[in-house]
Design goal:
It is a multi-pass membrane protein. Keywords: Cell membrane, Electron transport, Heme, Iron, Membrane, Metal-binding, Transmembrane, Transmembrane helix, Transport. GO terms for molecular function: electron transfer activity; metal ion binding; oxidoreductase activity, acting on diphenols and related substances as donors, oxygen as acceptor. The chain has one domain (about 5-330). With about 325 residues, it is mainly alpha-helical. The protein is built from 14 helices and two strands. The protein is about 80% helix and about 0% strand. It is globular. Helix 1 (about 5-30) packs across helix 11.
Amino acid sequence: MDLSVLWFWIVAFLFVGYFVLDGFDFGVGMSLPFLGRDETDRRVLINTIGPVWDLNETWVIVAGASLFAAFPEWYATLFSGFYLALLLILLALIARGVSFEYRHQRPEAAWKRRFDWMIIVGSAVPALLWGVAFANIVQGVPLDADYNYIGSFFDLLNPYALLGGATTLLLFFTHGVVFVALKTEGDIRDRARALATRAGAITVVVAASFLVWTGFAFGSGWFWILAAVAAVALIGSWLANVRGAEGWAFVLMAVTIAAAVFALFASLFPDVMPASNDPANSLTIANASSTPYTLTVMTWTAVIFLPLILAYQGWTYWIFRKRVTRTHIEAAAH
């Protein structure tokens, strides 16, 4: 396989890792107003992701760095054209991270409430805008002959892109609520399952609409196969949650997100940034990639370090595998 094609799929894999892992972090953050009836509930919710959220977030750094090194033209066009959207994502991630670290520094309810809202907004904004960004990449944006984006921020807020944003927002929300059910016990677990059932039903409808629109407008053979996998996994996750099998529900949600992201990349291939105004201005794998030498060095680096990273992350999740309960939170407060 050509190294540039290989790295196209490695970048896809890295975004899959980010959306699967940080996706449920976003969902947990967005669930605070729905599941956090009191301070103890809110601490339970935050503690479900407390040991792993920052590790999950590093996937986007690796994905961005790999995109920069493997496809510098794609990176330049994407980050200059989508500058405001990506800046909003960055500010939201900063606000969320600060909130996790500072909300417990003072006992006042008003202090905690302000940081809780920063967590909620800092989770919802990236969950929405990542979908908007990827939907625009798939459908194409206006580019000039030098591959510069010549539209505006508001051009990115078109109906197809907003549907993509709603899809990722709902997918991550449901993914996070399922994770809460998997990581907690008692009343909050029951309420999380009930919320995941309601949210999951809406997610199925919205995600199906987005995938069908994408398939008929931009899809290829591989897209339909991967989209079908995503659809079956999403329905399976909803059914597993209804039956109380939170583990299977979580795994199938992860499969849903992974298959959906790979489907979007499959609909792009061999382009990386289609030009909606003139196909001749499109960025492709061939004209956006780095030199063969750079890709060779990157490949050996990935072969050595990627398995170590995956092993470390798996070990981290194993260490923090136990459920979080109100009893643990209340005991820690004394």
